[in-house]
Structures are given as structure tokens and as C-alpha cells.
Design a protein that fits this description.
The structure holds two protein chains of two kinds. By secondary structure, chain A is mainly alpha-helical. Helices cover 64% and strands 5% of the residues of chain A. Chain A has two domains: 27-42 and 200-431, no CATH class; 75-188, abc type-2 transporter like fold (3-Layer(aba) Sandwich), CATH 3.40.1710. Chain A has helices spanning 15-19, 28-41, 44-69, 88-95, 97-101, 114-120, 133-138, 154-181, 208-227, 230-242, 246-250, 256-296, 313-341, 345-365, 374-377, 383-394, 399-424, 427-431; strands spanning 77-82, 104-108, 125-129, 145-149. In chain A, strands 2-1-3-4 form a four-stranded mixed beta sheet, sandwiched between helices. In chain A, helix 2 (28-41) crosses helix 12. Chain A is elongated and about 100 Å long. Chain B is an alpha/beta fold. Chain B folds into two domains: 1-77 and 155-246, Rossmann fold (3-Layer(aba) Sandwich), CATH 3.40.50.300; 87-152, no CATH class. In chain B, the strands form two sheets. A six-stranded mixed beta sheet of chain B has the order 6-7-8-3-9-10, sandwiched between helices. In chain B, strand 1 and strand 2 (16-27) form a beta hairpin. In chain B, helix 3 (93-103) packs across helix 4 and helix 3 runs parallel beside helix 5 (137-148). The radius of gyration of chain B is 18 Å and the shape is globular. The chains are: A mainly alpha, B alpha/beta. Chain A binds chain B through residues 5, 8-12, 15, 18-19, 21-24, 26, 28, 31-32, 35, 38-39, 42-43, 243-255, 427, 430-431, and chain B through 47, 50-54, 72-73, 75-76, 78, 80, 82, 84-92, 94-95, 98-100, 102-105, 108, 111-112, 129-131, 133-134, 144, 147. The structure holds adenosine-5'-triphosphate and magnesium ion. Residues 42-43, 83, 159 of chain B line the site of magnesium ion (MG).
Chain lengths: 432, 246
């Protein structure tokens, strides 16, 4: 708040934008939009909603859990207790984990109090190679290894899966040697093998990053649509009534439609700004998450730019912009209806909170919805928007789904806009 | 020409009638004062004239323009100071004026000159870049008054224009109102301050319980009062009594 005006109330930073008002063209809706943006700029909630929330919270919410699972972020501590001197090779190959993932691995001959080590000393995993391990193996029996781990610690599980991988490889090598000794093939002990094939409408193989983008982005776009400028919508309608400025505004020789147009223009700009910043930060979040995930499973490292295929990028960008603008307007129209309906600012907030909840539900459901109901989701309000976002990311070339979801989104938008202008024109909007 | 004209203007809120069957005419170049106690229906009447409230029945006309039928044309002819000043708290005094000047289609140079001029006259020059939230009640009232006369419309409708304003500023506002009318423009204002009406208005309407109890020139009302206190006459009129001329 202080950033824009001192405690004395003197405006400094936004003074220039205020004085820009003098040179506005003679278009009332532009004048209204200018004033709304000016007011939004002086509202500290703008900073929180448009910048702080999306830019900071979003990447954290998306990426943090993934990053916590990445052993590089916080390397797990592993203790290998070798009670069979001949098994030292296996212990050494476990120790190599340090170079690959940064895990701290120490080797010892005798363990001590395992419970104390795990619960109080910060050891995530203890691998105990029991005496007679190598001898048993060479006799054609089983060598024994015991894992001690903390079931509540994520790093424990991560460490265990890393060690397990090494031990499985080791085990497989021994198995192959044993099979070769009796002249059997590996196939003999694996009577059934499975092959996994993706079915996508493009026929291309989807990468992890694409799958995540296709799942998360439509949801994001939906959330932005509904919540993005919701607080501004309340402020511009219910707030204007609460501060008793709306009566004076209506004394100006400007039609209510034009006032609403100006307010919607400002709302759209604010939605797009908050939408873009949310999307960008979501992409960064997904990028970080995918990078972590991929590193942990040691596959090729993707770049953020690879989240979306380069050839699709123009469609996807255009699609996202359209979705954010449409979504912003739709959300705002709904919020205007709610805010006009409410008698007080508080009441408006309650309506909007409730609506947000109702409207977010279909958004969250979309990633889990079966393909068979996609055609229905494309023509339902709100979900049509999320479907449009999904269609344009997954398959921009397929005209039918894209146009269906886009057309129904536009039809709903027009309906909501019409309704909001009816609501805004009511006498009770002025005097409650 | 008739500046403001109403034909049996009536406003009901549910079953409650706030203004009943109000008819009057105000000629151009006149300051018309609507006088009445709290809750008499002054604000409601003004709101119907400036088009913020739809009359339940009846018509209001501004320079022959029906407010209900051609609201934008009528609003163009009126400068309004509502009961609640309606100053935007997050905009500066200047920006509040820019906003309305622009909404009324004023040109850059005229608007800039006019704002400089009005801020000077109303001693608000120092408050130019201060958000209105930090202005006092009276300062806000003055900004709202400046806003009403910004593009010098032919008709001014002022709901208690000197409310919360100090003696000096009230005098300044009254001077501006007088000056405004002397250039042939029309002012209609509401107040419960009899002294102000006496000082300012050429024509007076007295309203109580939503009904017009009396309308006439100041001289006529003074004659009606005769030796008696102006206040006594007012109270008797408010009660709905008829008074014989002496
Ligand atoms: N929106 C509304 N809904 C219901 N009743 C209303 C509404 N506006 C005004 N009234 C009622 O109408 C009557 C006239 O109100 P109005 O505001 O016109 O009085 P007023 O003469 O301006 O009073 P004051 O001198 O206190 O400003 C009052 O009894 C008031 O309670
Ligand atoms: Mg009043």
C-alpha cells in the first residue's frame, strides 16, 4: 500500500496514470476502464491477487511435493551394515549412489541400536547384509538383507527405492549366472511378459511433461477463470455500492451498458494479467516438478520449453489466451450477477465464495472424467471452458471438439453477460 | 422556459409512500429550495428528477426532456450533488474530477483549466494529489460540488449542498450557487436549513410526509409569515395547516 501512496495519502507512483485521464478519448467505457484500473492499482489486494498469490504460491504448491521427493534436494542418509565381509562389493555399489543422486552412504561392519539411529540420528535407511550372505548365494540359496526404515518419512521410501534398484540388478545378475549354469534362458522363468502401449488421438507418444500439462493446465485455466478477478468484480459492483459512489456514477450521462462495458474491460485486463502470471508460474511449477521427478528416475532432463511441443506452441498460446479472456469474462459476469444480487459487500463475498466452490468442482473433476463424457462436458457451462483448454493443448488440430467447446463457452458467456447487464441495471443495485 | 417540471410524481417503497403526487414547475434562472424536515422526501424527489430512482407514477421533465424516456439527454443537462457525495476514496481529488469531466465528454484543455480554477476557488489546491479517503467530510463535499458544476450544465440539483461544510466554505458554495443562477442557469436544492433558503432561494417549496405543502416565491412566503417568525410558518406548513394571508 505504501508503495503507491504515503500514509499522508499523497499519490506518487500512480500519479502519472491518474493524470493520463485528461487525454483519454471521448469514449465513456474507456474512461470507466481507466478509473477501475486506477482504483485496482491503489488496492493492495491487487498485488496479492495478481502477483503474490500466483507467482509465489503456485510454484510452491505444485513443485514442492515433487522436489521433496527428489533425493538431490534433500539427500537421504543411508547406512549399510555389512556383517558378511565378502559382501563388500554390494555395499560399494550402494555407496556409488552418492555420485548419482547425492545420497550419503556410509558403510560399517557392526550396526548398533537401529531404532536410535533412525528415530534420533537422522538416518533414513539402514541396509543390513546378514552374515553368510555370500556363502548362501554361492550355495544356491538366498542371501538375506534387512531394510530398516521410517514408514512416515518420504526420504526413507525414496532411499529404499534407490537401494532396491541396485539390489535387484545384483540379484538379476546372479539369477542369470545360475540360469546359464543349468542352460536355461531368462525367458524360461518369465512365462508372461507385458508390453505397454499408449493410445492417443495424435498417435504420438506422450511424455510425462505433456501428460502433466494436459492434466493441470485446463484445471488452472478454469480456476483462473472463476477466481482470477473475482475480488475485483465484487469491488467494482458491490464495493461501488458499499462506498456509495454508484449513485453519483449513474448521474453521469452514460448508459449503464457502457459503464458495465468499461468495468468488464478493466476486469478482462486484470484477469489476463493475473491469468498469465498464474499460468506462467504453474508452468514453472510443473517444469520444476517434472525436472525433479525425471531426475529422480534418471531419465533425460526436460526443459520447461519442452512441456509443450514446439509445433503446437502457437495454437496452445493462442488457446490459453482465448481461454483466459473468455474464462475471465465468464467468471466476472457470474460474479457481477452475484454481486448485484447481494445487498452488502459481505453478502457479495459470501455468494462469490459459494459460487467459486460450485464452479471449481467441474474443473477439478475434468482430469478424472472418463473420455466417454467429454462430449457432454464440452457443452456444459464452465466445463466447456476447461475442455476447450484441454482440447487445444492435447489436440489443437482436431476441429470438432475445439469448435464445440469454444462455441458453447461463447454462448454461455453471452448469456451471463446479458444477465449481468440486466442485474446491473436494477434500481436495487444503487440503493440495495 | 420551464427548467424543471414534475407531474404528480409519486414514489412508493413497498407499501410506504415516500413521495406523493408531487407537481411543480421551476422557471429558468431561479434558485428553487426544497425545504422539509428529515424523512420528508426531499432526497427521493431529487433522485427521481435526476433519474436515479424510477417514479412509481408521474413524470419529471428537464428543459422539456422526459427523464424516464431520454435519461442520457436529461442527465447531460444536469449537474448533480447527491446526498452521499459519492467521491471515490481511492482516487485523488483531481482524479475524481477528471473522471466525471471525461464521462461528461469534456475536452482536455477545458477540463484542466476548469479543475485548476475550481480547486483554487474551493481552497482544495493542496489536496490535488491526495486520495479522497484522506479528505475531511467538508472537503469531500466541496469536491462533490465542484464535480456537479464542472461542465456548467444548465441545471444544478443539489442535495443539501452545505452539509458538513464550515462557515467560510459554506459561504463560498452559496456564492457560487448565486453566481451560477445569475448567469441564467437553474438551481434546485434541498435543505432543512430555513436560514439558508431565505438567504439563497428565490422560490421555495415546503415538503413533509412526501407531500408538497407549499410552493411560492420567497416574498410570498415572507408575506404569509408577516410579523410571525419564519420558523413558525414553516412548522405550521409542515404540519399541513393552511395559513391565511394577513
Ligand atoms: N430506498 C428506500 N427504501 C425504503 N424507504 C426509503 C428508501 N429511500 C427513502 N426511503 C424512505 O422515504 C422517506 C423519505 O426519505 P428521503 O431520503 O427522501 O427524506 P429527506 O427529506 O431527504 O430526509 P433528510 O432531510 O433526512 O435527508 C423516508 O421515510 C425514508 O425512510
Ligand atoms: Mg435527504
Amino acid at each position: 500500500m505504501k508503495l503507491f501512496k504515503g500514509s499522508s495519502g499523497i499519490v506518487k507512483l500512480s500519479r502519472g496514470f491518474g493524470r493520463k485521464g485528461y487525454s483519454l478519448p471521448d469514449k465513456p467505457w474507456l474512461v470507466v476502464a481507466w478509473k477501475e484500473l486506477l482504483e485496482a492499482l491503489r488496492d493492495k489486494r491487487t498485488m496479492i491477487n495478481v502477483v503474490l498469490l500466483p507467482m509465489i504460491i503456485m510454484p510452491i504448491v505444485i513443485a514442492l511435493p515433487m522436489m521433496m521427493l527428489n533425493p538431490k534436494t534433500v539427500p537421504p542418509k543411508i547406512l549399510v551394515v555389512v556383517e558378511d565381509k565378502e559382501a563388500i562389493d554390494l555395499a560399494r555399489s550402494i555407496k556409488k549412489l552418492h555420485n548419482e543422486s547425492g545420497a550419503y552412504v556410509s558403510i560399517t561392519a557392526n550396526g548398533g541400536n537401529y531404532a536410535n539411529l533412525i528415530l534420533n540420528r537422522g538416518i533414513d535407511l539402514i541396509v543390513e547384509i546378514l552374515p553368510g550372505f555370500s556363502r548362501n548365494i554361492s550355495l544356491g540359496k538366498s542371501g538375506y538383507i534387512i531394510y530398516y526404515y521410517d514408514p512416515y518419512g518420504t526420504r526413507s521410501s525414496v532411499a529404499m527405492s534407490m537401494v532396491q534398484e541396485i539390489i535387484e540388478k545384483y540379484s538379476e545378475r546372479i539369477l542369470n549366472e545360475r540360469l546359464a549354469a543349468v542352460n536355461l534362458s531368462e525367458r524360461y522363468i518369465r512365462p508372461i511378459d507385458t508390453i505397454v502401449k499408449q493410445i492417443t488421438s495424435t498417435g504420438k507418444v506422450a511424455t510425462t511433461s505433456e501428460v502433466m500439462t494436459a492434466m493441470i493446465l485446463p484445471m488452472m485455466v478454469g480456476l483462473i477463470a472463476i477466481t482470477g478477478a473475482g475480488t475485483f468484480a465484487i469491488d467494482m459492483i458491490a464495493g461501488e455500492r458499499e462506498r456509495k459512489t454508484i449513485e453519483a456514477l449513474f448521474t453521469a450521462p452514460v448508459s449503464r451498458g457502457e459503464i458495465l462495458l468499461g468495468k468488464f474491460s478493466a476486469l478482462t485486463i486484470l484477469s489476463i494479467v493475473s491469468g498469465i502470471s498464474t499460468l506462467l508460474s504453474a508452468l514453472i511449477g510443473i517444469g520444476l516438478a517434472v525436472t525433479s521427478l525425471v531426475e529422480a528416475t534418471s531419465v533425460a532432463h526436460p526443459q520447461i520449453s519442452q512441456l509443450i511441443e514446439a509445433s503446437k506452441l502457437p495454437y496452445v498460446t493462442a488457446g490459453i489466451l482465448i481461454t483466459v479472456a473468455l474464462g475471465g469474462l465468464t467468471g466476472n459476469a457470474i460474479m457481477v450477477i452475484a454481486a448485484s444480487f447481494a445487498k452488502t459487500f459481505k453478502e457479495a463475498q459470501q455468494y462469490v465464495g459459494f459460487l467459486t466452490f460450485i464452479l471449481i468442482l467441474p474443473m477439478i473433476a475434468i482430469p478424472y472424467a472418463p473420455q466417454s463424457i467429454y462430449s457432454i462436458l464440452r457443452i456444459l457451462p464452465i466445463s466447456s471452458l476447461a475442455m476447450f483448454a484441454r482440447d487445444i493443448i492435447v489436440n489443437p488440430g482436431d476441429i470438432m471438439p475445439v469448435t464445440t467447446s469454444l462455441a458453447s463457452s461463447i454462448i454461455y458467456l453471452v448469456a451471463f453477460l446479458w444477465l449481468s447487464s440486466k442485474m446491473f441495471g436494477r434500481e436495487s443495485v444503487i440503493y440495495g | 422556459m420551464i427548467a424543471i417540471e414534475t407531474f404528480s410524481l409519486t414514489k412508493k417503497f413497498g407499501s410506504f409512500t415516500a413521495v406523493r403526487d408531487l407537481s411543480f414547475k421551476v422557471k429558468e434562472g431561479i434558485i428553487f429550495g426544497l425545504l422539509g424536515p428529515n424523512g420528508a422526501g426531499k432526497t427521493t424527489t431529487l433522485r427521481m428528477i435526476y433519474g436515479a430512482l424510477k417514479p412509481t407514477s408521474g413524470i419529471a421533465k428537464i428543459l422539456g426532456v422526459d427523464v424516464a424516456k431520454e435519461p442520457l439527454k436529461a442527465k447531460k443537462l444536469m449537474g448533480i450533488l447527491p446526498e452521499d457525495t459519492g467521491i471515490y476514496p481511492r482516487l485523488t481529488a483531481e482524479e475524481n474530477l477528471i473522471y466525471f469531466g471525461k464521462l461528461r465528454g469534456m475536452e482536455r484543455s477545458t477540463l484542466e483549466m476548469r479543475i485548476d480554477n475550481l480547486l483554487g476557488i474551493l481552497k482544495l489546491e493542496k489536496k490535488r494529489y491526495i486520495i479522497a479517503d484522506k479528505l475531511s467530510r467538508g472537503q469531500k463535499q466541496k469536491v462533490a460540488f465542484a464535480r456537479a458544476i464542472l461542465d456548467e450544465p444548465p441545471i444544478l440539483l443539489l442535495d443539501e449542498p452545505t452539509l458538513g461544510v464550515d462557515v467560510m466554505s459554506a459561504r463560498e458554495i452559496r456564492r457560487l450557487i448565486k453566481e451560477y443562477a445569475s448567469s441564467g442557469k437553474t438551481v434546485m436544492l434541498s435543505t432543512h436549513n430555513m436560514w439558508e433558503v431565505e438567504k439563497l432561494c428565490g422560490r421555495i417549496g415546503i415538503i413533509s410526509n412526501g407531500q408538497l405543502r407549499y410552493i411560492g416565491s420567497k416574498d410570498e412566503l415572507e408575506k404569509l409569515a408577516g410579523e410571525k417568525e419564519f420558523e413558525d410558518v414553516f412548522i405550521r406548513l409542515v404540519r399541513g395547516e393552511t395559513i391565511e394571508t394577513v
